[in-house]
Amino acid sequence: QVQLVESGGGLVQAGGSLRLSCAASGRTFSIYTMGWFRQAPGKERELVAQIMRSGGGTVYADSVKGRFTISRDNARITVYLQMNTLKSEDTAVYYCAARQVGRSWDYWGQGTQVTVSS
Fold this sequence. Notes:
By secondary structure, the chain is mainly β. 0% of the residues lie in helices and 53% in strands. Strands 2, 4, 5, 6, 9, 10 and 11 form a 7-stranded mixed beta sheet that branches. A 4-stranded antiparallel beta sheet has the order 1-3-8-7, with no helix packed on it. 31% of the residues are buried.
């Protein structure tokens, strides 16, 4: 099993920045890709960004390109999401997730709330 614990959410004004962190523990050697999802009230959960074990292969949702940056520290088995120029529409619960090669997103964190006030 893999455990994921997010931190760094909070309340920020529009135009501000936040950095989310997700620390993995357990059978972390099996993790290939890590990512961030978000879910706003009344909306489906959506992929925000993902990154491969190598640190490459980054993918971003169109809505966050140029504003958000995903990175990972393999020594600490931690993935980060730097969020800049935040907008009210970024308000959501953000979830860290991980998956193995060829598998679906099997591992999830508990979520952290990000609220952007306009």
